[in-house]
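Morning F.,

Quick status update on the modeling queue. The single chain you submitted on Monday has been processed. Sequence for confirmation:
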Amino acid sequence: MHITTLGIDVAKNVFQLHGVDARGRAVLSRRVKRSQLMDTVASLPPCVIGMEACGSAQHWGRAFEPLGHTVKLMHPKYVKPYVKTNKNDRRDAEAICEAVSRPTMRCVSIKTVEQADLQAVHRTRSLFVKHRTAVINQIRGLLAEYGLVIGQSPEKVRPALVRFLDDAASGLTAFARDTFAELYAQLTELDARIERVTHRVERVSRAHPVCQKLAAVPGIGPLTATALVATVGRPQAFHNGRHLAAWLGLVPRQYSSGGKERLGGISKRGSRYVRTLLIHGARAVVQRAERRTDTQGRWLWALKCRKGTNVAAAALANKNARVVWALLARDDVYRRPA
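Structure tokens below.
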């Protein structure tokens, strides 16, 4: 039995393995527990291991590569067409094994431990921001029941809520004041947590040479730079800057047929978080394009007047993604436009 390709259906406690030889014949079909997976894979000769890019797949990829195996992670939607008949663990492992053997299959880069650390802190900050937004919406919705309407942003909610709590004529009962005081305490705690996590990201950005290189690009700050380092991984995995921009969903969505091209809005594929940071940073640059006299400023201002702010921001985000690939792949430095 000589296995050349191995498909692993990753789960929490039970893993299904499906291996084939060089002629494509199934020679292994086994279910192992989590404690047995490392020993089972270590006993196999070096081969190509395919897994879906899901929870814990990055960990197993880093664990299998030192054993001499070639690990490839794939998006689950690319594996789904290879599932035959009914879905179960055996069929999933077989589909993964068949999908990873396709020469045109697109794979996901395995993140290092450093990239996993950066991704964890970004997702933690995103979770805190999401919770803060939920608390603000709860406060605004409950205050509206008392005829008190305030703005949406945290800068408007905090002082307005304090003013209503201190004002005896605001219409809030003593019972309601205790409730809104609890919500205000939770909002303050979330603000403090977001600030601590943001400072942590900024410290990492200042100490990381690659982040400093990316932060020189207009529209990219500490948050975006560290998110790009955590997400992009190996720039060599992309053929060029256009490939990276397409991977981030910053290119037009295409629905062409019969030689007739139909292009829509941006495809919005890839990491929504990184794409959002790039577009928000680009929007800040577009807003100041009118006062610039360099070539990029004139291009942005003309595009904004012709197509609008959103199109100009998406175009600049696309351009910044291509610049990021050039800086990472060629180890170059950013040179501002003349």
